[in-house]
Amino acid sequence: MALCALRRRLLRSSCAAWSRLLQRPSSGCVYSSVHGFHQDEITEKLQAFPGGSVDLLQQESGIAVLTINYPSRMNAFSGSMMVELEERVSQLESWTDGKGVIVRGADGTFCSGSDLTAVRAISNPQDGMKMCMFMQNALTRLLRLPLISVALVEGRALGGGAELTTACDFRLMASGSVIQFVHKHMGLVPGWGGAARLTRIVGSRNALKLLGGALKVDPELGLQIGLADGVVEAPQAAEGGAGVVLQQAENWLSHYAGGAAPVIRAVKKVVLSGGELPLSEALRTEKDVFGTVWGGPANLQALASKSKHR
Ligand SMILES: CC[C@H](C(=O)O)C(=O)SCCNC(=O)CCNC(=O)[C@H](O)C(C)(C)COP(=O)(O)OP(=O)(O)OC[C@H]1O[C@@H](n2cnc3c(N)ncnc32)[C@H](O)[C@@H]1OP(=O)(O)O
């Protein structure tokens, strides 16, 4: 009897923990000090490898643009950029008016993974583990944002860059672009959570093919296996390239992120909990999220306008 009561109590507290995780900012981490992860320590280490930036533009439309910006290294992630990524995710967690985010690379290419200069300097297992936990935390928090996220892939997404695309809800590939998990060629497997997320996106068999063969995924193959959700036309630079592609991505996203921010954020929360939690817990979270929009402004407006859905 006592054991049952204890089990029930543990279950209740784990449900409450998940519900808190989905509602509260900056709590979507996988690792903490319990796992030997000390954010300040690895942050200091990463800052020793500077270069490039991760830029955030939060627009009044509720759509943000997050740009990986280190064109001279094909937008590879320097140590300081990893730290900036985590800071930008924190900013997005506090953005209560946000509905969507587009993740892209500067100058017509997405991201070529870790900056190999930094990788060579921290190639010992201890530092590798710390970097891995840091990036898994940052990318898990990116994926768990109450925003609909799209990776806009132009040019190449290699290694960690390919992993970054899987930390978004959707992937749009520009014509001529390639996503490639090159890890096998580097004697590695993904460590930023890319394998776990890829498997959930394309299934075990396709994930095995992409990782085991280090296959180049072009837009056609991407659509075929469900890694890509759409293809955008990449015009020549002379035709205003970057702006045109970004505009196409914003138009695409507007189909899913149009409408009142509280409703779009609620949509993301119920889908996220549906995907991550056991059914009973997901149902309870759905009930809680439902309670935040029921009788809310968008709901009352729709009721008053007697809207029809023909
Ligand atoms: C494997 C997992 C790991 C992780 O998850 O942490 C990683 O991500 S490791 C990084 C995996 N990525 C690579 O190995 C990319 C290696 N680079 C290339 O294959 C090519 O540079 C390519 C295909 C990205 C671009 O080729 P292209 O001919 O168009 O240009 P360049 O090779 O001349 O590149 C221009 C310039 O960028 C530098 N560069 C590119 N990627 C990186 C990188 N990841 N780290 C550091 N620097 C990078 C390249 O060296 C050139 O610099 P330069 O000074 O002109 O030589």
TrEMBL record:
Organism of derivation: Gasterosteus aculeatus aculeatus
For this protein, the record's PANTHER family field holds: ENOYL-COA HYDRATASE-RELATED, ETHYLMALONYL-COA DECARBOXYLASE
UniProt GO MF annotations: methyl/ethyl malonyl-CoA decarboxylase activity
Please give the catalytic activity noted in the UniProt record. Answer: (2R)-ethylmalonyl-CoA + H(+) = butanoyl-CoA + CO2; (2S)-ethylmalonyl-CoA + H(+) = butanoyl-CoA + CO2; (S)-methylmalonyl-CoA + H(+) = propanoyl-CoA + CO2
**Which subcellular locations apply to this protein?**
Cytoplasm, Cytosol
Starting at the broadest rank, the lineage of the source organism is: Eukaryota, Metazoa, Chordata, Craniata, Vertebrata
Keyword list (alphabetical) reads: Cytoplasm, Lyase
Q: Which domain of life is it from?
A: Eukaryota
What's the name of the protein? Answer: Ethylmalonyl-CoA decarboxylase
Instruction: Give the GO biological process terms.
Output: fatty acid beta-oxidation
**Known EC number:** 4.1.1.94
- Entries under InterPro entries matching the protein: ClpP/crotonase-like_dom_sf, Enoyl-CoA_hyd/isom_CS, Enoyl-CoA_hydra/iso
Q: Which family does the entry's similarity section mention?
A: Belongs to the enoyl-CoA hydratase/isomerase family.
Q: What role does this protein play?
A: Decarboxylates ethylmalonyl-CoA, a potentially toxic metabolite, to form butyryl-CoA, suggesting it might be involved in metabolite proofreading. Acts preferentially on (S)-ethylmalonyl-CoA but also has some activity on the (R)-isomer. Also has methylmalonyl-CoA decarboxylase activity at lower level.
* GO cellular component terms, A-Z: cytosol
Q: Which CDD domains match?
A: crotonase-like
